[in-house]
Amino acid sequence: MQKQGLELKQTQRLSPLQIQTIKLIELPVQELEQKIRSELEENPVLDDTPDSDRRDDNDDTKDISIDEIKDDGDIPSYKTRINNWGKDPRPEYNTFSVRESFTESLMEQLGYRNLNERDFQIGTFIIGSLDSDGYLRRDIESLVDDMAFRAGLEVSEAEVEKMLATVQEFDPAGVGARDLRECLLLQLKVRKQTEEVRDAYRILNEQFLEFTNRHFNKVMSRLSLDEDRLKAAISCISRLNPAPGGQLDDSYAEQAQQIVPDFVLEEHDGELSFSMPRFNIPELRVNRKYADMVADAKGSGDRAQKEAAVFIRQKIDSAKWFIEALKQRQNTLQRTMQAILDFQHEYFLDGDDTNLKPMVLKDIAEKTGFDISTISRVVNSKYIETHFGIFPLKYFFSEGMENKEGEEVSTRELKKALLDCVEEEDKKKPLTDEQLVTEMEKRGYKVARRTIAKYRGQLGIPLARWRKEL
Predict the structure, then answer these.
(1) Residue 110, domain member (yes or no)
(2) How far, CA to CA in Å, does 88 sit from each of 31, 93, 370?
(3) pLDDT band at 415 (very low <50, low <70, confident <90, very high)
(4) Is 421 part of any domain?
(5) In terms of pTM, does the model score above 0.90?
């Protein structure tokens, strides 16, 4: 038996102004400039030229509504509808993407090769199969099966091997390797073939297991190398990149664009403040002549004039939403940056990482009254110029842990202490992760071994046996 009933649901729909504001908040200053130029080109009502006789928010453009100038009996309703809703009221926001930057770089290089359509498809599939470190972790047979199943492309293992060799010629050197040994060998192949490079290649190619197990005497004996040549070869190997894809990460994305700071920190006698340079961002207003056209249409019996006025009124509303969204963006960025500045005041005085307090998005959301999602959008892709460098806002956020006194310290402070431990260790007997736990505890930080391993990986510090020197 079917039952019928009524169900009341409350849903929230973002207004055009809210959507516009969200989109503008996400944009870094360079993209904001482009967005404003685009709006000026698309909306004739927007004006960026100075006008001593400009109208303020209380002018006729605010008082005139579409209802006053339309005649529902004469003008079809679709012509009075404002069609500026996006397909998705919760738009995807612009974030640094490790995977996207890496893939795009390789695809660009693939495009430079003179390949037929078939080889290009194989190369594309191989690139899409690489992990974020730049390795191909899957065997050739699996790739062949996947291409047939997912791409409808019947290929042989030989064809895949051939295109893999092509991808392995791309920058960064070592990309497309199937294991660490192959990755390092690929990098040595493109180096100038000096004695130390040739020795390093022989060590990795012929004595890789003995080398990784630090059996240096066996390596010297089997390859007829003296201690000086072995040291030179080890030094050469230590400068290679074990994760070639890893260099195309956030830092790559940041370097790939010209960084223009959204904020400039100013310090005078211990007092901190900041400014927001406008650069090429103009002052916008609604062009008066279009507002006059709408006003003239009131009471007019000319149908064509009324239709034109409805269109102009929609453009005026769109322009006003855009101008108001710019104001809200400015206000949101200012309040968020001020909250960060207040929270991290001691750090911003001199840039000492040990003064950087644990801070998460929720902390700034509570201080500003904004949603966490809004703070996330502000922090993303925004930079501040300080007297000790230019930093992305996300740099100042980190989780916290307690030291042995029960005081909360930032993970950045812990990483700095870990780095100091490694720099001060005896390189002939480097500290294991367990010993690093003890050293950190001596410095007042109680950290688990797995946390040490995690931070060590994030800092690019190799295992103890890889840090050992003769």
Answers:
(1) yes
(2) 20, 12, 22
(3) confident
(4) yes
(5) no
